[in-house]
Amino acid sequence: GDFPLMSQKHKRVLSAIFQEPVSSNIHWREIESLLHYLGVVVQSGHGGRVHVVLNGTEGTLHRPIIVACVQDMKYVSYANTFLRLA
User: FRET partner for 15 with CA separation of 20 to 30 A, picked from 5, 23, 58, 74?
Assistant: First the structure.
């Protein structure tokens, strides 16, 4: 979809999610905020799992244990893959 009023912060996070190589300089709360902005239904599950739904596409993301900053790039990759499929 088109999001003409997307904040610069959301644009930066979206760009970082799709950056190659994958960026590890993204805070999990920024990813979650972007997902909400994009209309993703986000439900917390057990063990750090996050169930996400967008445009009929369902997926499971894994919230990092240390939620301040996403040090392990696989968490960003999960968000990247889900957004590409949705």
Answer: 58
Note the pTM of the prediction, 2 decimals.
0.79
Dihedral angle sign, alpha carbons of residues 78, 64, 48, 44: negative
Q: What is the CA radius of gyration of the chain?
A: 12
**63 vs 42: CA distance, rounded Å:** 12
Q: Which helix (H) or strand (E) holds 81?
A: helix 74-85
What is the crossing angle of helices 28-37 and 8-17, to 10°? 110
List, as one string, the DSSP characters of 8-59: HHHHHHHHHHT-SSPP----HHHHHHHHHHTT-EEEE-GGGEEEEEETTEEE
State the number of CA atoms in the 13 A half-sphere of 51 facing the CB: 6
Backbone phi, psi, residue 83, to 5°:
-65, -35
